[in-house]
Design brief:
297 residues; 13 helices
Length: 297
């Protein structure tokens, strides 16, 4: 399995942005409901990418190059957007009914679910990736869990979120090699934003003053966490196995704890530091190139 360090760097950058965005998302919930916040952030992420797409397509046309299959990008973007919207909303609502520690651990179960679903898609999973997945899951347990594990309504919602994030990674893996990554990302944000906004008008009472008050965290989540990070995920997955991608993206939780330590002055326990170390080792393990088969001449 070939591993691109450039793609890995893109995926880590996405995980870093998402990890630091937890602060913005937490503050944003003080002004807006989950549906309103997610709807607005995804629409904002889509709008940020529109000028980039227009510029890229105009440049390709000027050079006489093929601008790509827009129909395939639309189909893929809508599929990714529906799954992304569902996963983001389940996570946000789940956090309302469970602790952040439990939510962090349960969400990272997609590390295990991705290779599990990959079996049904007839994908071959190398042994070191299975070992890395188990190590990463154990690391996230050390990092996030601080109480006795028991299922509640919130736990179930976050578990369903982990299932959808697993599906999201596999759907991107299917469509990203066939279409332009930025266009796919833009359409998935637009889809998720429209669905979230429509649901917000039905189940919440969004007010323009609330959006203005929460513009800073909303802009961070919309421009960086949505517009930039998810695009990095799409581009990074083009040359990366989805299971390895899920392991690198799982660093989001570790970064969020570190961001809390640096920005919010929260201290890390020895257990949490051990969790960070185990996850880091798991990511390094799966990126070590395997031995090439010896050829006899």
């Amino acid at each position: 399995m070939k591993i691109s360090w450039k793609s890995s760097l893109m995926l880590f950058s996405a995980a870093f942005i998402w990890g630091t965005a937890f602060v913005a998302q937490s503050v944003g919930m003080d002004y807006l409901g989950p549906l309103s916040f997610n709807g607005a952030r995804f629409l904002m992420g889509s709008l940020v990418l529109l000028p980039v797409i227009c510029f890229a397509r105009a440049k390709k046309k000027g050079k006489g190059k093929n601008t790509g299959n827009m129909r395939a990008a639309a189909v893929g973007g809508v599929c990714c957007g529906v799954v992304l919207c569902g996963a983001a909303l389940l996570q946000q609502y789940g956090i309302l009914y469970t602790t952040v520690g439990k939510a962090g651990f349960i969400t990272t179960l997609y590390i295990i679910l991705v290779p599990f679903f990959g079996i049904f898609l007839k994908k071959r999973i190398p042994g070191k990736v299975w070992v890395g997945a188990v190590l990463a899951a154990f690391g996230m347990y050390l990092l996030c869990m601080s109480e006795n594990f028991s299922l509640s309504r919130g736990d179930i919602l976050v578990f369903l979120c982990a299932v959808l994030f697993s599906v999201h990674i596999l759907v991107i893996d299917h469509f990203s090699p066939r279409v332009d990554g930025v266009e796919l990302s833009c359409i998935q944000f637009l889809t998720a934003g429209i669905i979230g906004s429509c649901l917000a008008f039905v189940f919440e009472k969004p007010d323009m003053q609330d959006f203005i008050k929460g513009i800073v965290p909303l802009a961070y989540a919309g421009v960086l966490s949505s517009g930039v990070a998810y695009t990095l995920q799409v581009l990074g997955q083009k040359n990366t196995d989805p299971t390895i991608a899920s392991l690198i993206l799982s660093l989001e939780s570790a970064v969020s704890v570190l961001a809390g330590w640096v920005i919010l002055r929260q201290t890390l326990t020895v257990r949490e530091l051990m969790g960070c170390a185990v996850v880091f080792c798991a990511v390094i393990l799966v990126q070590i190139p395997g031995k090439k088969k010896r050829s006899d001449f």
